């Protein structure tokens, strides 16, 4: 159901558009009638009284102006009309259709318009907002759904398009935009990959695939029906399906179609996944944690390998900052990251709900209760408790083994790791404590709003950091970039370490067991094992700038040589049958 009150959206308008499609584009009509529910899209009312859209929850980004979306679109059309000349205009992303509607009202009736949308639910909402039936019948506008159809259209129409990306969705649909670049279709004639959309790292992986001459198309299987996913697969004919972290349901689809399903696990998960079908021969899992290799194999997956994280040098690189940028971003010590307070609170509530399924007398129930008590009393805020410096200090030994009794199914059928729900609280408190205890002339923290309420006055909270150019500037401007890993995954090297080094920045890394295998200790990256050691290293490297620069330069050279995302993707491609 649409939420909240969707004033201005009309079922009769939808029926009129679908009737026109049934005659002019019957296949698209069928696909739209079977589209998935739009829980990921929220309809709100702008100040003008017109409906507007948010992506995700109430804190998500607006796809149109929250003030006057109709006027916003009309003003935008004026700037595009004189640029298109006689080329067909391709609207890349529709939202609620305001831009398309304003364009059709202003443009010459003989000028063709192609309207592209990746998300079936957004296209349905467009059809509920504006009546395009007459334009569909007249052939003034042609609607295209999903990347496979866009590629087929581009291949068919060789005269070229004038792309007009939606101001928000155009940024999300960069895979589609890349296909419109001159010569791009001709240069990607080898392998093809369907990539599960969502997240900055997905864009990095898509870039790396393209660098390796793989044609990329993204889609969101969580926002479309299974039938639509199958349609895209059969039309695009991918040589592989790629997902960052595990995506339920895809192993079985790929198995049925004999398509390799590549999973690169890069984040911790509360869910323990297992095959839903009898065979997952075509699923290949690459995990950032060596400890997870055994876990996935025991769950029934046959092809599992360790693959550390890496950096994208196109996004993270050394850069010269202006004086204004230096003033804003320079710091003796900086930390960029979540306080994890929201996650900890949410998982604590999940634990309370699911722990009731454990027998009160079970050994695991007692172990988890002990761990939770230890985590909740782990030092937080800015109190100095030097005795608590590692996971072993906070959690009893019996918390770490992979005991099957600690996994409980939730209402959605997922197998939830209750220990993970417990650990997140202690991990959050430890992260806050480490940052709060730092002493340096200037210490800056970038992240969520919770930081503002839990830091001492000597530490400056600077708000959230943009993950594009702004994050790169922070890494370049900071004398010391601090890395604080999640307390319960002390074995890994975080993405933060690779990204800072790709900027030729200096990083003090939270020591992980994998660090000596990936970098020369002290020569390419410096790590700490306790808050006491951390402060000592901060003092030393603030006083020895040249040594700091030499370590940063060596770390940069190692990342560019061995630890780029493109190199990781190369190893995956070489591993595929």
Quick take:
With 577 residues, this protein is an alpha/beta fold.
Give the helices and strands, then pairings.
Blueprint (H helix, E strand, L loop, with lengths): L10 H14 L1 H8 L7 E5 L5 E5 L13 H16 L4 E4 L5 H9 L6 E5 L2 H10 L3 H6 L2 E5 L1 H10 L5 E4 L3 H4 L1 H6 L4 H4 L3 E6 L3 H12 L2 E6 L6 H11 L3 E5 L5 H8 L3 E5 L17 E5 L3 H9 L3 E4 L16 H7 L1 E6 L4 H14 L8 H14 L14 H4 L12 E3 L5 E3 H19 L6 E4 L12 E3 L7 H9 E5 L12 H8 L4 E4 L4 H4 L7 E3 L2 H13 L1 H18 L2 H11 L2
Parallel strand pairs: 3-4, 3-6, 4-5, 7-8, 7-9, 9-10, 10-11, 11-12, 13-16, 13-18, 16-17, 18-19, 19-20
Antiparallel strand pairs: 1-2, 14-15
Instruction: Point out poorly predicted stretches.
Output: 1-5, 380-392, 394-401
Approximate helicity band:
40-55%
Sheet with the most strands: spatial strand order? 8-7-9-10-11-12
Shape: globular
Number of β-strand runs: 20
Structural class: alpha/beta
What is the typical, i.e. mean, pLDDT?
Answer: 86
